[in-house]
Amino acid sequence: MEIRQLPVAQAVGHILVHHQTGPDGRKVLKKGRVLTGDDVAVLQSLGREAVVVAVLAEDDLPENEAARRLAGVVAGPHLVASKPVGGRVNFFADTPGLLKVNIDGLLAFNDHDGITLATRLHNTVLTPKMQAATLKIIPYAIPRSAVEAAAGTARQFAPLVTVRPFTRRRVVLLTTGSEQARESVVNGFTPALSARMARYGAALVQGPHTTEDVSAIADAIHQAAAQAAEMVIIAGETSIMDRDDIVPQAIRAAGGVVEHFGVPAEPGNLLLLAYLGDLPIVGAPGCARSKKFNVVDRVLPRLVAGERLTRRDLLALGHGGLLRGEDGLEG
Question: Which of 19, 20, 37, 188 lies 20 to 30 Å from 326 when distance is taken between CA atoms?
Fold first, then answer.
């Protein structure tokens, strides 16, 4: 494709590069249109003698065709592509889930000149019809070879973007503390956690309240597992303060393994993650009471989506782990 300034009479069949305005300042011809004989008459009536146009080479693909072809290879399951308009295709989630982005692949794809793919952040929670990404062809046309090369990169890293649906539906909340604190603990944690689970398509089920006792908490974990819990959250009158505190002792007594305690995120340093077989158990920090964005918003959706997070996954939260001021559930 070449950008040329041509006499108006020679511009028919070429793409208008810039908006054209009339004497009143309003647009009479919009950029990006293929000029017709009628358009030439309009330009001549405005006193234009020459106009800047894009002249396509024989092997060029128009922007919308290039966008359409690439849209078919960049997106994985559960993403719906819009019709290409102005060289742009938008992608929308068709199910609740987590956006998964191949970050290295995205960088390699965007390294192809004239082709761009912008996404929301990796692990963003998506709801149906929420936009996840946008593909834009920058010029009005692009060589077929460039499109084929970008498509090859997309296939190499496939999928560049996809949605991992939420799969865990039953999440049991166990609360601990004194009997006098039962109502405060239950009412303190339930509303915000219930709202989060609803966003992920899961239900928060109220489990038993126990004293801070190893055997009692271990029994409550076994009870939750026996009642088909797909994830357990333990929230207490006081947050877990040490890897050998009562709750982690109880998890080990129940046969579970503590994956990690103490994460590089604020609010939420005191989060614990453990597993009883394949059953994830989260020791909730006090900030889980809040609807404001905090560490549980980085951890819970990934667990509900069926990921088995590791110690390394939690350590990686340190990059971007200062979460104060992030948007939460409010509003």
Answer: 188
